[in-house]
Amino acid sequence: MSGITIRWYRPGDEQAILRTFNLVFREVCGPTFVDRTLAQWQWAYQQNPAGHRISLAVADDGTVASQYAGMPMFCDTPFGERRFVHCVDSMTHPAFRSGLQTKSLFVETCMPFWAHCIDIGDALFYGYPVDAAYRIGQRYLKYVLMTGIDYLIRDASAGPMAAPAGLEVTKVDAVPPDIGSVYEQVRADKQCLTRRDYRYLHWRYVQNPARTDYELWTVRRAGKLAGLMVLKPGSGLAPDASTIADWVVPEHDGAAADALLAAAVRRQHEEKKQRLMTVLPAWSHEAAWLQQRGFVVTPSATWLGRRLVHNICQPQFTAEFLAARWWFTLGDSDLA
Fold first, then answer.
1. Is 3 left (phi over 0), alpha (psi -120 to 50) or beta?
2. Number of C-beta neighbours around residue 203 at 10 A
3. Does residue 290 share a domain with residue 221?
4. Could you tell me the pTM of the whole model?
C-alpha cells in the first residue's frame, strides 16, 4: 500500500499509537471517553510479564494508520505452559479506512502479527470484538465465535448473605505472597486457565494505573490463605452493578467461597448498586454455585451484546476443548 509501512512496534512508537487510539475510540465511545494515558499504555504492554504483541501500519508522516495488538497471558493447560494472546486495541485511523469491500489495511496489519505469533509458539488468539471488527474478522481472519457472553447477576433485592464462622475476610492492599499455594489448588480443579500466580495478579490489579477501581479481598482459615477475590464495587458491564472481576478459590472450599461472596454482596449494598455481576464459563463449578446463591444467567445482549471469539494456532486446542475446558473470568479480558 503506497505510503504505508507495515512493521512491528519499535520503542518510541507509543505516542503515535496513543494519538490514533484516542482519536478512534473517542469516535466510537462518544463524549464519555477518557483518553488513554502513556502510563496506561506502558502498563498494558511494556510491563506485562508475558510481553506484548504489536503490529503497526505507519504512514510516511509517522501517523499510525492501523494497529493490531495483543496482550499475551501465560496459561496452564493439559499440554503444558502455553501463551494465549488477548487481541485488544485493534484500530484503523479514519483517514485510512477502506470498508469491507476489499481487504482492508486492518487485515494487512493483522496478517504479519499472526504469522509472527504462530512462529514463536503462541497457542491461541482471543478477543471480544465490536461488531465492525467481528465482521471483518469473520470474513478475512478466521474468527470463530466461541460463545455469546452471559452475565451472572444477583439483584440487591436478594438481600445480604451470612458469612460462615471461623474465617477471616480482609480487604488488602497487595496480592498476598502465599497466593501460589491457593492457585495450585485451583489449577488442580481446572484443565486450562490463565496462570494466576503472584506476578500476574500483581501486574493485573496492583500495578494497574486503574488500581483504585479494584478491591482485593482475602479469606484465611487459622491464618492460612484460603482464597482471593478481586472486586470492582463501583462499576460493571451491566448498569448499576458491582463486579467480581477475578476469583482464586479452590472448588472444594465452599466456606471460603461463601465468605468472599458475602463480602462482595455487602460492598454492593454499601455502594448502593442494584446488581452484583460476574462472568464465568457456563459449564463451570462456580457458575452453578453462584446460581444456587441467587445469581441469574442474563444475556449481555440485554444491554450491549458481547461475544468471545478465538483463532486456534495449535491443533490440540480444538473448539470443543476450549468450549468445555477453558476457564476464564472478566479479569482475562479488558472488560473489567
1. left
2. 17
3. yes
4. 0.94
